[in-house]
């Protein structure tokens, strides 16, 4: 019994999963907080790309 409890305490395989879940939660929270700024940024980037792409084909 003592050996299996020691092995259970030293097993850290689930720590990586918890870290990934926490990182995803932080990223989702940041996207929700800065949603309007990100939307404006992406729209500006796509409008810039489309206007410059039109000048390439002329």
From TrEMBL:
Membrane found in the keyword field: yes
All residue ranges annotated as the Putative Flagellin Flp1-like domain in the record: 8-54
Keywords, sorted A to Z: Membrane, Transmembrane, Transmembrane helix
Transmembrane stretches, start-end: 15-34
Protein name according to UniProt: Putative Flagellin Flp1-like domain-containing protein
Organism expressing this protein natively: Hominifimenecus microfluidus
